[in-house]
C-alpha cells in the first residue's frame, strides 16, 4: 500500500495486552467541532459525537454502560452472552441446540464485541478527521472468521472453557463455519492481510468489494469420478459476521446516452439507461489485541424495482421479476466466465457497479467535512488492487467534472494524488483490456472521459518525444485492432501517483519489461516495490 503514513500514529501491541493502538486514535490530533448525522457528520456541531443523544442523555449513557458490562470476557459472562443469542436471536431452547446453532450463537456473541469496538474506532476516526485508506479489491479471501476473531480479541481460552461448560467443543464449533465466499486466491488473501494489518497498526482503512451470493465455486467428484465445479452457497445458513446497511443503498446507472463538454474538458451529461441498487454489507475486521477495528464493505446488487405487480397480474410472471433477476446477476459469482459476450459484459458491469458504489460512499463521507475538493487527497487514499477497479479513475473524473463542477486539470490533479495501483502480473496478455464497443454501450460517458484522458496524455508524450509514433502507439490507452480495446493497466498507471509490484524481482520486471515507456516518461519515482508478507497471527500463531 503506497500511503501507510495516513492517519494517526500507530503503537505496536505487545503480548501482555497492556499497549493499545486505539489509545492513539482516541486522542484526536486535529479535533474539530462537528455533529454526527445518520450518514456521517457535519463539522460545525459539538466537539464530540457522544454529546448529541435523542431523548434522555443519561438514559442512553446508562444503557451503554450496561451494554459494556454485558460484553465482559469472564467465562460466566460469555455463557450468558451465548445463551442470550440462543434464546432471543435464534429463538431456541438449550435442549434444542445443535452444533450449527451453537456456532451461530457463539459467533453472534463475538460479533457483539467486534461491533462495539468498530463503533468506538469509527467514532475516534471521525472526530479526528483522519486520512483513511480505501482498499479496492475484487476479492477478499478472509477464510473462516471465528477463529481469527477469537484470537485477535484475545478471548479464545475463555470461549474454549465456556463451550465446554455448555456441552460443546470449540474445535467442533469452529469446524461448522463456512469460508466467506468473497475471494479465491493470492489477490484476495493479500487484501485480507492488509485489512488485518492496518487494524492492528491503528491505520484507518476500509476495504471495498462485491457481496457475492455464490462465491466462486467448489470442486466435487461426480458419479463418473470426474472433477466438476458446482456453486458454493456460502450464505445458505446466513453469515453472523456481516451487518446489512439497507438504509445506505446507492443507485448505479448503466447504459444510457452521454454528451461531452467543450474541448473535452468541460462537464458532460449522462442520462437515460437503467439503475441498479447497490446494498452495502459491513464486515468488521479486528486488529490483534487492540480495540482498533476496520471494515470491509461489500456491495450486493438488487433491482430498483423488485417486483412488477402489473406484469404479474397480466400473467407475465417472468417479466414481473426480470429486472430484479438481471440486477442480481451482477453480484452472483466471483469471476463469471469470459468465454462468451454475456460473461464479458457481466464482468464489466461488476467492476463498474462496485467502484461506482464505493466512490459514492467515499465522496459522501468527504462532503460531510465541507472541505474543498482539492483537499480530497489529504483525507483519502485509494489503492487499486490489480486492474479490476481501474474504472474508478474515469468514474472519479466524472464525479469531479460533471457533478462537482471542477475544471479538468484540477480534477486530474486530484485524481492522480488520490489513486495508487498494485500490479500483480508481468505477462502482457494477462493485463485486462475491454472492447471499446462494450464500454461505449455500458458506460458511454466513461468512454468519452477515457478518450479525453488519452488525448491529453498523448499530447504530453508527443511534447517530450516528438515524432515518435511507435511510442505513442505503445503508450496509448487504446489498443488498435478489431475491435479497439481499452488498456486498463495503462489507465491505472497514468491515473496513479504510485505503482508497485508485489516482490522485489516482480517490481523490477514491471519497470524493465512491462512499463519501460512509462518509466522513461514519468521517471523511476512513480514505481516502487511493496513485498507481500503474511499475517503471522493467522499462519503461525493459530
Automatic annotation (TrEMBL):
A single Gene Ontology MF term assigned here is:
pyridoxal phosphate binding
From the UniProt entry, list the residue stretches annotated as the region Disordered.
Answer: 1-48
Q: What cofactor does its activity depend on?
A: pyridoxal 5'-phosphate
Q: Which InterPro entries match?
A: Glycg_phsphrylas (IPR011833), Glyco_trans_35 (IPR000811)
Q: Locate the compositionally biased regions of type Low complexity.
A: 1-19
Reaction equation(s) it catalyzes: [(1->4)-alpha-D-glucosyl](n) + phosphate = [(1->4)-alpha-D-glucosyl](n-1) + alpha-D-glucose 1-phosphate
> Is Transferase included in the keywords of this UniProt record?
yes
Q: What does this protein do?
A: Allosteric enzyme that catalyzes the rate-limiting step in glycogen catabolism, the phosphorolytic cleavage of glycogen to produce glucose-1-phosphate, and plays a central role in maintaining cellular and organismal glucose homeostasis.
State the similarity comment. Belongs to the glycogen phosphorylase family.
Instruction: Name the chain's protein.
Output: Alpha-1,4 glucan phosphorylase
Q: Which organism is it from?
A: Rhodotorula diobovata
Amino acid at each position: 500500500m503506497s500511503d501507510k503514513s495516513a492517519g494517526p500514529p500507530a503503537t505496536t501491541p505487545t503480548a501482555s495486552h497492556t499497549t493499545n493502538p486505539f489509545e492513539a486514535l482516541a486522542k484526536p490530533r486535529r479535533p474539530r467541532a462537528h455533529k454526527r448525522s445518520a450518514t456521517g457528520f457535519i463539522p460545525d456541531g459539538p466537539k464530540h459525537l457522544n454529546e448529541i443523544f435523542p431523548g434522555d442523555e443519561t438514559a442512553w449513557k446508562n444503557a451503554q454502560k450496561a451494554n459494556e458490562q454485558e460484553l465482559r470476557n469472564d467465562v460466566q459472562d460469555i455463557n450468558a452472552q451465548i445463551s442470550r443469542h440462543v434464546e432471543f436471536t435464534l429463538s431456541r431452547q438449550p435442549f434444542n441446540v445443535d452444533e450449527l446453532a451453537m456456532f451461530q450463537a457463539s459467533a453472534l456473541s463475538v460479533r457483539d464485541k467486534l461491533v462495539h469496538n468498530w463503533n468506538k474506532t469509527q467514532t475516534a476516526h471521525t472526530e479526528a478527521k483522519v486520512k483513511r485508506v480505501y482498499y479496492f479489491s475484487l476479492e477478499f479471501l478472509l477464510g473462516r472468521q471465528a477463529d481469527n476473531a477469537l484470537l485477535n480479541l484475545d478471548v479464545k481460552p475463555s470461549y474454549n472453557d465456556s463451550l465446554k461448560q455448555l456441552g460443546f467443543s470449540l474445535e467442533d464449533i469452529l469446524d461448522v463455519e463456512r469460508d466467506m465466499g468473497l475471494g479465491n486466491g493470492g489477490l484476495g488473501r493479500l487484501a485480507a492481510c492488509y485489512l488485518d494489518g492496518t487494524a492492528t497498526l491503528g491505520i484507518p482503512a476500509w476495504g471495498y468489494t462485491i457481496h457475492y451470493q455464490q462465491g466462486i465455486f467448489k470442486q466435487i467428484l461426480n458419479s463418473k469420478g470426474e472433477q466438476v465445479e458446482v456453486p458454493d452457497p456460502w450464505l445458505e445458513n446466513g453469515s453472523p459476521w456481516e451487518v446489512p446497511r439497507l438504509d445506505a443503498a446507492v443507485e448505479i446507472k448503466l447504459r444510457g446516452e452521454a454528451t461531452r463538454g467543450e474541448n473535452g474538458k468541460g462537464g458532460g451529461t449522462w442520462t437515460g439507461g437503467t439503475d441498479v441498487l447497490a446494498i452495502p454489507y459491513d464486515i468488521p475486521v479486528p486488529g490483534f489485541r487492540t480495540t482498533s477495528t476496520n471494515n470491509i464493505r461489500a456491495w450486493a446488487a438488487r433491482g430498483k424495482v423488485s417486483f412488477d405487480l402489473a406484469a404479474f397480474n397480466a400473467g407475465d410472471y417472468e417479466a414481473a421479476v426480470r429486472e430484479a433477476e438481471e440486477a442480481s446477476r451482477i453480484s452472483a459469482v466471483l469471476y463469471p466466465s469470459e468465454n462468451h459476450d454475456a460473461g464479458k459484459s457481466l464482468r464489466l458491469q461488476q467492476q463498474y457497479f462496485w467502484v461506482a458504489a464505493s466512490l459514492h460512499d467515499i465522496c459522501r463521507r468527504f462532503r460531510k467535512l465541507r472541505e474543498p475538493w482539492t483537499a480530497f487527497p489529504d483525507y483519502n487514499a485509494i489503492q487499486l488492487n490489480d486492474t479490476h477497479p481501474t474504472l474508478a479513475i474515469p468514474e472519479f473524473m466524472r464525479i469531479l467534472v460533471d457533478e462537482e463542477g471542477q475544471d479538468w486539470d484540477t480534477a486530474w490533479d486530484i485524481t492522480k494524488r488520490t489513486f495508487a495501483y498494485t500490479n500483480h502480473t508481468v505477462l502482457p496478455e494477462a493485463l485486462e483490456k475491454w472492447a471499446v464497443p462494450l464500454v461505449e454501450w455500458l458506460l458511454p460517458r466513461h468512454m468519452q472521459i477515457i478518450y479525453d484522458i488519452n488525448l491529453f496524455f498523448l499530447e504530453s508524450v508527443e511534447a517530450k518525444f516528438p515524432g515518435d509514433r511507435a511510442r505513442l502507439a505503445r503508450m496509448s490507452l487504446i489498443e488498435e485492432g478489431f475491435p479497439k480495446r481499452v488498456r486498463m493497466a495503462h489507465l491505472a498507471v497514468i491515473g496513479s501517483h504510485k505503482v508497485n509490484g508485489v516482490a522485489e524481482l516482480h517490481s523490477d520486471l514491471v519497470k524493465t519489461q512491462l512499463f519501460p515507456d512509462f518509466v522513461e516518461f514519468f521517471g523511476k519515482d512513480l514505481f516502487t516495490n511493496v513485498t507481500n508478507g503474511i499475517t503471522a497471527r493467522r499462519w503461525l500463531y493459530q
